[in-house]
Design brief:
By secondary structure, the chain is an alpha/beta fold. The chain folds into two domains: about 240 residues, Spore Coat Polysaccharide Biosynthesis Protein SpsA, Chain A (Alpha-Beta Complex), CATH 3.90.550.10; about 45 residues. The chain has twelve helices and eight strands. α4 packs across α7. The longest helix is centred in the last third of the chain and has 33 residues. It is globular.
């Protein structure tokens, strides 16, 4: 173990969708961490969430701590040392997983944790949590789930991980931190990119466009990396979403957004009616997820 990097950052899936790998790689290089972008192909893939778990299972044995980053999560504060600080604190307290709370979204959605960014220890408990997440039956997890207690059910690895934490007796070995420390959202960025550590572009119909628009707010390129660091690491392709292509995509996204805005009152009426149903019946409805 001493011959391998203590901490490794990894992201990936079944395709490279966004410029986040540039963002992740530069943050890792600046802080002396290893970085890998991986494909999660595996004979046992069933859902899109399985790529993540497949990658983590394969790479965790190579590090003392493995940091998972969803490909739509970007570091925004390149001076912050949150990863090493959180690892140090977890080691001192005998913890094996660091994960952020799910922040309150503008639409009212929330979750107890969000698995878009996780710091996992290569330990018996860390490996057990990953294996329990991989093996968890989603139907069983959904039956156990309580929307008021656990928040939004996403029908994926996030729910499986929370179930594994709560039912496996590992609660004391997990450090749940504030979202600004590890995994935040755009509406919490008010003044600068250092308002939080990581920006996670969840819920965007066009994620690449969402990144570009967020970058415009703070006068930075679409990699969300300071210009001097792009120069330092000789990144030649920068902010690729421009011109007519961007304008077409902006028009499409804005049109869909306008339709959704007009339909929202009707959706809220349906949701209010569903909320009046008994909890057992409500959990069986597609609207509940």
């Amino acid at each position: 173990m001493s011959e391998t990097p203590i901490i490794g950052i990894v992201s990936g899936g079944d395709e490279i969708r966004l410029r986040s790998y540039i963002n992740h790689a530069i943050y890792a290089r600046e802080h002396g961490l290893d970085y890998r972008v991986e494909t999660g192909i595996d004979p046992h893939i069933v859902t899109k969430f399985d790529y993540k778990v497949s990658i983590i299972r394969r790479l965790l044995p190579h590090y003392e701590w493995l940091v998972w980053m969803d490909d739509d999560a970007f570091f925004t504060d390149f001076d912050a040392t949150n990863i090493t600080e959180l690892v140090t604190a977890a080691e001192q307290d005998g913890q094996d997983l660091v994960i952020a709370e799910g922040p309150l979204e503008p639409n009212g959605f929330w979750s107890r944790v969000n698995t878009g960014v996780m710091i996992i220890r290569n330990s018996e408990v860390g490996r057990a949590l990953v294996e329990a997440t991989a093996a968890a039956d989603l139907a069983k997890v959904r039956a156990w789930w309580d929307d008021e207690r656990d928040g939004l059910f996403t029908n994926g690895d996030q729910d499986q991980m929370w179930w594994a934490i709560q039912t496996g007796g590992h609660g004391t070995r997990v450090r749940i931190v504030g979202h600004r420390e590890l995994n935040s959202r755009g509406h919490y960025y008010e003044n600068s990119l250092s308002d939080a550590f990581v920006m996670h572009f969840t819920g965007y119909p066009d994620k690449e466009l969402g990144v570009a628009r967020f970058a415009d707010r703070f006068g930075i390129g679409q990699e969300l990396v300071p210009e001097d660091l792009l120069d330092k690491y000789h990144v030649r392709t920068r902010s690729p979403l421009t011109g007519a292509t961007r304008r077409r995509r902006e028009l499409a996204v804005d049109m869909v957004g306008a339709v959704k805005y007009r339909l929202r009152p009707h959706k809220e009426k349906v949701t209010a009616a569903v909320d009046l149903l008994p909890a057992g019946l409500r959990r069986r409805l597609p609207l509940a997820s």
